[in-house]
Amino acid sequence: MSHSPTVSAEPKSRLRRAYVGFVIEVFRLNGDQLAVGNTLGADLGLTSARWQVLGAISLSPVPLPVAHIARNMGLARQAVQYSVDEMRADGLVRLEPNLHHKRAMLVAMTDKGEAAYREASERHGRWAESLMADLSPERIEAASELLRDIQCRIASSTATPASTGIKEI
C-alpha cells in the first residue's frame, strides 16, 4: 500500500515557515552585502555604514539633518550621527546651517565625499553586473517588489510584542 504525500493541515504553518526562512535569508544577504561594501570601499575611507549614509545624502535633492537621513534609511539616528561625525573629521561631509532648526545642522557631501561615493558606487556596479550576469532583470525586480511590499506591510502593522503574545527579550 502506498502512502500519499502528507499535506499540512495548517496552511498558516507553511506561510510562517516561509516568511521566517525569507527573513533569515534577508539577514544573511544583509550581512554579506555589508561585508562586500566594507571591502569595496575600504581604500576610499568608506565602510558600508558610511557608504549608506552618503547614499542617502546623494538621493536627496537638498541637504538633510541626521534625523531625516536616519529615517529615510531605516537606521538609528545615533548610528548615522556617529558616521557623520567620523566622515566630517575625514573631510567626506560638511555641516551646513539649517534655517528651520538651529541645532539640527544639514549634512552635505564634500567634493572628496562625492568622489569617494561615486567610485564606490562604480565598483559596486561592476561587481553587481558580474554577480548577477545570469539572472534576468525581471527576476531581480520581482524580488525587489516583494521586499518593498513586505516593508510596507511591516510599516503599517500595528503588531507589538504584547499584541502578538510575544514576550520581549
Verbal overview:
The structure is a single chain. The chain is mainly alpha-helical and 169 residues long. The protein has helices at 11-41, 48-59, 66-73, 77-89, 111-131, 137-156, 161-164; strands at residues 64-65, 93-96, 106-109. It has 7 helices and 3 strands; from the N terminus they run ααβααββααα. A 3-stranded antiparallel sheet has the order 1-3-2. Helix 2 (48-59) crosses helix 3 and helix 3 (66-73) packs across helix 4.
Annotation keywords:
169 residues, Arc Repressor Mutant, subunit A, three-stranded antiparallel sheet, 7 helices, 64% helix
Based on helices, strands and strand pairing, what is the structural class?
mainly alpha
Portion of residues in beta strands equals 5-15%
Just give the CATH class. Answer: Mainly Alpha
Find the CATH topology: Arc Repressor Mutant, subunit A
Total domains:
1
Q: What is the count of helical runs?
A: 7
Rg: 21 Å
Strand element count: 3
Question: What helical percentage do the residues reach?
Answer: 55-70%
Shape: globular
CATH homologous superfamily heading: Winged helix-like DNA-binding domain superfamily/Winged helix DNA-binding domain
- Residue runs with pLDDT of under 50 for 5 or more positions: none
The overall average pLDDT, rounded, is 90
Give the topology:
Elements: H1 11-41, H2 48-59, E1 64-65, H3 66-73, H4 77-89, E2 93-96, E3 106-109, H5 111-131, H6 137-156, H7 161-164
Antiparallel strand pairs: 1-3, 2-3
Task: Sum this structure up briefly.
This protein has 169 residues and is mostly helical.
